[in-house]
Amino acid sequence: MNGRRVDVAGVAVATGHYINGTRVDSARTFEDRSPLDWTLKLADVSRGDGTDADAAVRAAAAAFPAWAAKSAAERAAYLHRLADLIDENVEPLARVECEDMAMLLESLRLRVISRGARNFRAYADLATNYASRRWDSNGTHNAVLRMPAGPTVVITPWNAPFMLSTWKCAPALAAGNTVILKPAEWSPLSCSLLMDLVDQAQFPPGVFNLVQGIGEEVGAALVSDHRVRRISFTGSPETGRAIGVAAARNLTPFTAELGGKGPFVVFADADLEAAATKAAVMFDDAGQVCLAGTRLLVESSVADDFLERLRAASAAHVLGDSRDPATTVSPLIHPEHLARVEGFVERARAHGDRVIFGGARLDHEGLWYLPTLIEPHSNDAEIVQHEVFGPVLTFQTFETEDEAIALANSTPYGLSAIVYTGAQSRADRLGERLRAGTIWVNTFLVRDLTAPFGGTGISGIGREGGDYALDFYSDLKMYQVKEDTTHG
User: Fold this and answer.
1) Same domain, residue pair 314 and 254
2) What is the CA radius of gyration of the chain?
3) Cα 417 to Cα 244, 298, 303, 422, 440, distances in angstroms
4) Domains in the chain, number
5) Do residues 266 and 218 share a domain?
6) Within this chain, do residues 252 and 290 fall inside the same structural domain, yes or no?
7) 254 and 241 Cβ atoms separated by less than 8 Å
8) pLDDT value of position 361
9) What range does the domain containing 368 cover?
């Protein structure tokens, strides 16, 4: 393929778009720097505009009829080839994403990049093995059938960019849609490498496209295009609202995952050591995980014991270079984001919230922020009610199960919840009453790719995962045949 390339961690990475099966460079660019060393510029990346957006949508629209006409098994062959190529390229993908986003290199090598391959295989197989609903009623044979919806825009966040892009693009492609992927401008490079693998897998031109750029520019142009028939977004509620307005103008179905402020509820009958150890895991990836349980709600009778264990587990964290296997907490993604996290903590202090530990940068040079625990003065405090998306947890206590549930459900978010308890009956009650799209009991971040994923409240709309995603990326039609229809 043509186009400009730069060396990142020993890997040649294209800095342009991928449209209609070829690399396209823009005259304008934006800088991409490494969170590991902000003085290091990784690349000048093509800064797409309305012309690039139009070219990508035009290519996707032209490729759609032929891609949609293929059988699910034919499309699955492409997805499986792509999955195999991902598995063969875990090391370069991991090195580039580590430099670009600063996720721990060991995690990327061992689980995160390979999850991208699993996404493509899982949705290829789900689409191939799909059985339509069929029944007889009112003298007719009935079936609900899926139709590919059309060109699809996927906009992904800067945290875990490769995995989250594959999570969204895989079901869209498996359902028969063509895709335009727009990655976040703070960490675009691993998605560019994905397009090299798409090219090697010999996807038909226009089926899978990539457009780089700033959200307010090329992203806005993509989601406003009337030819786009599905939009999937992960990011902030503010951006989600703007995209939702643009989608509504064209009556384009839209799904969004918009972050969380998950409760981590610990009862007195829980294994406190296990709970505290898992709570300290919420600092991993510098807390830049939407599913993290950031609001610790602990039964009063064991609060001091739990807090002592949490201090010890948190003190064991090592802040450092994400390429070092000893490191457990990476730097934050960008100076703007570091300033945002600092702002939350400083406003909490100013409003009388108590910083139990942490609450400062590691040093004056890098983007590391110390694991931080804050006891708020009120449940209405900003630090409780708003997503920080950094290594900052809050600590509150409760007396009764009802109080725990009320506190857990007291924010406008509803993406996930974590419960630690030794009583199955209590776990079942909380499973019914907690308002969250995913609830884990005595564990965290265990994912079944066939399960629904999404949030309630301002955590988002719609569901991803399994047939839920394939249904979203399809138009459903009802097919009825009179029972005595003559077959010829």
Assistant:
1) no
2) 23
3) 26, 14, 19, 16, 6
4) 2
5) no
6) no
7) no
8) 95
9) 262-412+416-441
pLDDT score for 363: 82
Low-confidence ranges of the chain (pLDDT < 70): 1-2, 485-488
Residues 137 and 183 placed together within one structural domain of the fold: yes
Do 374 and 434 belong to one domain?
A: yes
CA separation for the pair 368, 383 (Å, rounded): 19
Query: 448 lies in a domain?
Result: no
Cβ contacts of 320-328, under 8 Å, gap ≥ 24:
320/368, 321/36, 322/36, 322/98, 322/102, 322/103, 322/104, 322/105, 323/36, 323/98, 323/105, 325/105, 325/106, 327/104, 328/104, 328/283, 328/284
Residue pair 238/259 in contact by the 8 Å Cβ criterion: no
SS3 call for 339 = helix
Strands 179-182 and 208-210: parallel
Integer Cα distance of 371 and 285 in angstroms = 11
133-137 and 140-148 strand pairing: antiparallel
Give yes or no: 169 in active site: no
295: three-class secondary structure by DSSP? strand
Closest listed residue to residue 198, CA positions, set 119, 101, 84: 84
Residue that is written with structure tokens 């009583």 in the block: 423
29-49 per-residue burial string, b: 16 or more CB within 10 A, e: under 16: bbebbbbbbeeeebbebbbbb
CA 150 to chain centre: 23
Together in a domain, 147 and 269:
no
The verdict on residue 428 lying in a domain is: yes
CA distance 321 to 331: 8
Catalytic residue among 98, 290, 299, 387: 290
Q: Do 118 and 449 meet the contact criterion of CB atoms below 8 Å apart?
A: yes
| 227-236 tens-digit pLDDT | 999 999 999 9
Q: Is residue 27 part of a domain?
A: yes
Can you tell me which residue has the tokens 């950094």? 390
CATH number of the domain enclosing 432:
3.40.309.10
Could you confirm whether 346 is annotated as catalytic?
Answer: no
Distance CA 293, CA 439 (A): 10
User: Both 98 and 234 in a single domain?
Assistant: yes
Dihedral sign from CA coordinates of 4, 81, 115, 262: positive
Residue of 257, 299, 387, 464 marked catalytic: 257
Helices (H), 351-464: 382-385, 401-408, 424-433
Tell me: do 218 and 345 sit in the same domain: no
For tokens 């142009």, the residue is: 221
In a domain, residue 484? The reply is: no
Predicted pLDDT at 1:
60
How far apart CA 293 and CA 275 sit, in angstroms, is 11
Residue 449 backbone phi and psi in degrees, to 5: -70, -10
Token pair for 439: 């609830």
